[in-house]
C-alpha cells in the first residue's frame, strides 16, 4: 500500500486498486462509472471528490499523468486496475489500441447489433 498524494495521509492504495481508508480502517467499496471504469469517492478537508481508480493507481505508484495523456488498460478490461495492466498513452495511441484490439467495435455497438457512426477525425 502506498499513500495517495493530496489526501492528507488518510488514504492508501495497492497495486491492484484497493483503496484503504484510515478514517474507517478498512478497504473502501468502489462503484462502476457509466463508461465501465471503477471509481471511488474520497473525502479531503471535508470535501468529497470522485476519482477513477486506474488513474489513482498509476499516479500513486508511477507518478503524475502529464496533461493531455490518458491511462490505457492493456488487456481492454476497464475494471482490471492492476499496475501491470496500466500504461501511459496519448489519446491517439489509446484509440489505436482500442481499434486494433477490437474494443472500439464493442464500445460502439448498439443493443440491436448495429454500430454507431464514427464521428472522429480522419
Tell me what you see in this structure.
The chain has helices at 53-61, 91-100, 103-107, and strands at 2-3, 11-13, 19-21, 26-27, 31-32, 38-44, 47-52, 70-73, 86-89. The mean pLDDT is 87. The protein has one domain (2-107): Homing Intron 3 (I-Ppo) Encoded Endonuclease, Chain A (Alpha-Beta Complex), CATH 3.90.75. It contains three helices and nine strands. The protein is α+β, with helices and mostly antiparallel strands and 122 residues long. Helix content is 20%, strand content 27%. The strands form three sheets. The chain has a four-stranded antiparallel β-sheet, with helices on one face. A three-stranded antiparallel β-sheet has the order 5-6-7.
Overview in brief:
The protein is α+β, with helices and mostly antiparallel strands and 122 residues long. It is built from three helices and nine strands.
Mind sketching the topology for me?
Blueprint: E1 2-3, E2 11-13, E3 19-21, E4 26-27, E5 31-32, E6 38-44, E7 47-52, H1 53-61, E8 70-73, E9 86-89, H2 91-100, H3 103-107
Antiparallel strand pairs: 1-2, 2-3, 3-4, 5-6, 6-7, 8-9
Amino acid at each position: 500500500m502506498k499513500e495517495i498524494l493530496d489526501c492528507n495521509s488518510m488514504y492508501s492504495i495497492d497495486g491492484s486498486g484497493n483503496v484503504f481508508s484510515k478514517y474507517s480502517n478498512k478497504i473502501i467499496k468502489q462503484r462502476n462509472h457509466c463508461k465501465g471504469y471503477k471509481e471511488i469517492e474520497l473525502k479531503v478537508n471535508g470535501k468529497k471528490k470522485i476519482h477513477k481508480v486506474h488513474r489513482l493507481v498509476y499516479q500513486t505508484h508511477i507518478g503524475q499523468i502529464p496533461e493531455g495523456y490518458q491511462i490505457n488498460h492493456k488487456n481492454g478490461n476497464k475494471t482490471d486496475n492492476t499496475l501491470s495492466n496500466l500504461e501511459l498513452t496519448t489519446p491517439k495511441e489509446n484509440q489505436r489500441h482500442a481499434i486494433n484490439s477490437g474494443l472500439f467495435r464493442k464500445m460502439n455497438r448498439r443493443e440491436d447489433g448495429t454500430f454507431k457512426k464514427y464521428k472522429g477525425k480522419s
